[in-house]
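Q: Here's a chain of 447 amino acids. Please give me its 3D structure as tokens.
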Amino acid sequence: MNPYVNEVLEHLKKKYSWEEEFLQAATEVLESLSLVMEREPRYKKHRILERMTEPERVIMFRVPWQDDKGEVHVNSGYRVEFNSAIGPYKGGLRFHPSVNLGILKFLGFEQIFKNSLTGLPIGGGKGGSDFDPKGKSDNEVMRFCQSFMSELFRHIGQNTDVPAGDIGVGGREIGFMFGQYKKLRNVFEGVLTGKGLKWGGSLIRPEATGYGAVYFAEEMLKTRNESFQGKTVLVSGSGNVAQYAVEKINSLGGKVISLSDSTGSIIDENGIDQEKWEYVMDLKNVQRGRIKEYADKFGAKYFEGKRPWGLAKAEIALPCATQNEINLDEAKALVENGCYCVSEGANMPTEPQAVEYMLEKKVLFGPGKAANAGGVATSGLEMSQNSMRLAWTREEVDEKLHNIMINIHKSCKEAMDQYGTPDNYVNGANIAGFKKIADAMIEQGLV
């Protein structure tokens, strides 16, 4: 490891020892950047790594709200505005009991590089709350969202910080927050993405992260003259990203045999076809049910408390649930079962040792900051449509998304080849994302 990189990492570990996810993300990125620091000492001169690993701003606030029984609850709210060197802060809001500052710093840090890779003028940020929307009525969610936005509105805007959705924040939550922002600021502007189609949203936005992860996998497969046609695919999760990954894989001739949620996984050797996919959409988006109900209805195998990896043979895997869902043993099981392509639909779903193992085994491994950039890319396209006061067709947005994912793959490939690590998309994504931001930071002075 480059001495400068090691120095910065040791400092971060001492300063933020309790922020495990952030340290994991920083270590993965900075280790890749050792290759750059050896060749280009100007980045050390300007202390770019220290500046890039510290958020420009962290906002923390309380969120009081009242449930349907009139009882008062208080949650924590956060917004980490990490880097604005190439554009306004851009990144999702996550509502989940696991949310804390360390997780949001990890997500915001990853977002810097992901947004850079899209080629769009957007910086990196992330936010959210430890509020859990599950089991809450629409009115309770509305009251929480209005209280949350009553503080956040001071710190965001279409040219400052443009939040989006994430885990626990879908169209319903975006709508409630946008309405409160509009009321407080007395402006109608593209301040949130993932909006409803009738009031500024973009076609393909719900599908974008899942579609994008499939498009990136498709580009990786092309480097070995392969495609999805006739391949068996494992997908984890059953939310937005997983749902649309399944749809796109089916359209490309692949066969998805798994889905999962926090209770367990299903394996359907017959494949999740259109009829079954429509059932999953209703089960998860309308009924808010559990994936076990799929197994009960279609006679699939259900594995309580387990993730899909290692439960069946497959050539391709798309982890689309949450962070650190593939450990070293599961990575070994994937490889033993014939998997040679992994495209991360979730943020950092693979543990570091598992990533190293798959790279050693020459698995085509698409890291989340590249493979799942389709969501934020289409959010950027939504911002463009809002600024121009127009709406593109479904086909136009999908074509732009597809081209962005092709270009992300191209940028990663060029960077990893330039720095002598062919087939290492982790290095390629980190280096390509970093250089654009670092150069902008140097040109803008010490700020």
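Q: Can you summarize the key feature?
A: The chain has three domains: 3-52, 57-188, 208-366.
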